[in-house]
Design goal:
The chain is α/β, with parallel strands linked by helices. It contains five helices and five strands, in the order βαβαβαβαβα. The protein has one domain: HUPs (Rossmann fold), CATH 3.40.50.620.
Amino acid sequence: MKKALFPGSFDPFTIGHHTIVERGLKLFDQIIIGIGKNNTKKYLFSIQERMAMLEDLYEDENRVVISAFEGLTVNYCKNVGANFILRGLRNGADLEYEKNIAFMNEAMEQDVQTVFLLTKPEYAAISSTILREILNNNGDISEFLPRGMKIPK
């Protein structure tokens, strides 16, 4: 079984993230959406809220598993039996950042490979950071979220 880990903070999970998962399902038998916990980072949504949003979104897709993890991504891959890390790229800056992480991950664990998927052009400007800023200013982000995804009040 080809398993991929799609790691991120997903605070919130965007339509861009969703399309990476949908396209990744064409390549992998299972995708584990791993919500990384970083105690030094301040989140808009709790880990429980983020997990609940994603569990609701993917409740009818048995090939998607939602989990939370702490520590190194490559270690978590080994723990869950994933040989691939799935990453989305919006632009060249993402590529520069992500390729260095991929090189380090491969140096630590040769059995785990990173697979990059380019985001669809119409979603390239969408980021969780921007969506948090919109939410913090009482804006509506529904058009930037996967259809049917519910944001806690």
